[in-house]
Design brief:
Keywords: Membrane, Transmembrane, Transmembrane helix. By secondary structure, this protein is α+β, with helices and mostly antiparallel strands. The chain has one domain. Helix content is about 50%, strand content about 15%. The protein has three helices and three strands. It has a three-stranded antiparallel sheet. Helix 1 packs antiparallel against helix 2. The two termini are about 20 Å apart. The model has no long low-confidence stretch (mean pLDDT about 85).
Length: about 100
């Protein structure tokens, strides 16, 4: 039997462990923030409609733009809890290796 060692694409730059977790990128955060603003803005009258809802729409557009412009993905080491960035190419290799 072969021993399973996990992926060897993304390795923590602090401790060298390969047990890392994908935490997203800025476009993911902007998308969640915009969805929250749109939901809250639709519920609250006047202030929500004229202040929060436009902020949510602007944030949604920003998340779409950031998705195409940002070339970094964020990971967090499960051993030492160190957060770090990797390139989009490394992330694609990581995603393909864990399937």
């Amino acid at each position: 039997m072969s021993k399973t060692e996990g992926q060897n694409i993304v390795i923590c730059k602090n401790c060298g462990s390969n047990s890392v977790k994908y935490t997203g990128n800025i476009s993911t955060f902007l998308l969640y923030a915009s969805l929250a603003c749109i939901v809250v803005g639709a519920i609250i009258p006047f202030i929500g409609w004229f202040v929060i809802l436009p902020i949510g729409l602007i944030s949604m557009i920003s998340s779409i733009i950031a998705y195409f412009l940002v070339n970094k993905s964020y990971f967090k080491c499960q051993s030492c809890k160190h957060s770090f960035k990797v390139s989009l190419d490394e992330y694609k290799l990581y995603k393909a290796s864990i399937k």
